Amino acid sequence: MFGFRDIEIIRAIVRHGGFRAASDGLGLAQSAISRRVRHLEDRMKIAIFERDGRGVRLTAEGRRLCDEAELLVAQRDRILEELTQNVMAGVVRLGVAETMTHTVLPRMLTALRARHPELRFEISVETSEQMGAQLAQDGLDVAIMLRDQAPRGINMTPLPPVSLGWFGSPVHFAVPQPAGIDVLAALPIVSFPKRTTPHRQVVQLLSSGRRMPVAVHGSASLATALHLVSQGFGIGTIPHDIVRSWPHAGLEEIAVRPEARLPDLEFAICYVPDRNEKIGREVTRAAVEAAQPCPLE
């Protein structure tokens, strides 16, 4: 219905107090400005200006048009500034494994907000398998996920490994220590969700050479796993960082023999470079910095 040039002409008429003065300010013929306004009024089927012998003034519809147009001009100017001055803005679709939400994520997002206040984040907490599929299908821009679940053609930057331990509530389980595989396999175990790498590793570790499968319960929520273990449902395979951040859970690490130790979790920041190179590099930078130990740690 109207363009930014129409808005500029109307603003000039208002600012200069009339068509003749606006023509001098814009360097256009007065007849061209009058014709432009008349055509705009015809298209919109409203009167923008009231004309009398003393000059012109905005109608009620014209004032509303000007007010709304100011917002459009401000948006246009903001977009141009962001694009021309390399300002990062918009929405970033970020997938995160839950382990990272309690450790790397808060510091990473705080740093990104400080550097790029125009960015907005939509955060999805998913399994690494789900995030790998969403990255491949352009459902996510960046993901912090297990390295072995990353799809092909991805840009991947490793993060420091996350150590796992065996934990239990001393109120509910008196486990002889150092515990071997036979002792652990006889207890109910809460671990990561089924089909994830940590879950498979626990099952393989405890099931080797056994006729009966061990009872490994999967939980997609670390908070749920912590609660179950603290309430005596079973023992759990939980990252050390998570237990340290939840001291109120009252969990204690179970010392185990070397053969029962769990492998570290290997996470990475992943993105498809063809689609998200710019924001991918910024999130990677912030995540790597956030993963470094704090001076007081």
UniProtKB/TrEMBL annotation:
Residues 2-59 form the HTH lysR-type domain. It comes from Paracoccus tibetensis. Keywords: DNA-binding, Transcription, Transcription regulation. One of its GO terms (molecular function) is DNA-binding transcription factor activity. Belongs to the LysR transcriptional regulatory family. This is DNA-binding transcriptional regulator, LysR family.
